[in-house]
Amino acid sequence: MSTYTFWYTHRDPILETEILHDLECEVEVDADDPTDIRVTDVLVNGKSLRIGDAVSKALSYQIMDAAEQNISEAGHLWDEIKEEHGYVYRGLGGNDPDGHWHRAVA
Question: What three-state secondary structure class fits 101?
Fold first, then answer.
């Protein structure tokens, strides 16, 4: 597993205001398979939010969801994962039914 820097902003939809702005954290990502990339933990100051109090745990799940969304939408986390793991796309474009991501052979 690898860790990546991630900035999280939480906007409360009911209050229509930002509660947290650009919280810097690290997300731990399991990216051994390019078709099944999962965020497994969130670290702040080197400590897992998943073992904290109820607020920290709830925040960790919000951040993990946001990070996974960033990856699925080809955001900056996906770019970092591709570079670190050497993933390349083989196919004729995004609509190619035979297109797929795989690890490049060195």
Answer: strand
- Structure confidence by residue, pLDDT tens digits, 20-52: 999 999 999 998 888 788 999 999 999 999 999
- Give how far the C-alpha of residue 19 lies from the chain's centroid of Cα atoms, to the nearest Å: 21
Domain span holding position 59: 2-103
Residue pair 13/62 in contact (Cβ under 8 Å)? The answer is no
- The structure tokens listed for 31 are 């990216």
Which pTM does this prediction carry? 0.82
Q: What is the DSSP string of 8-43?
A: EEEEETTTTEEEEEEEEEEEEEE-SSTTS-EEEEEE
CA 11 vs. chain centroid, Å, equals: 18
- pLDDT greater than 70 at residue 100: no
Number of domains in the chain: 1
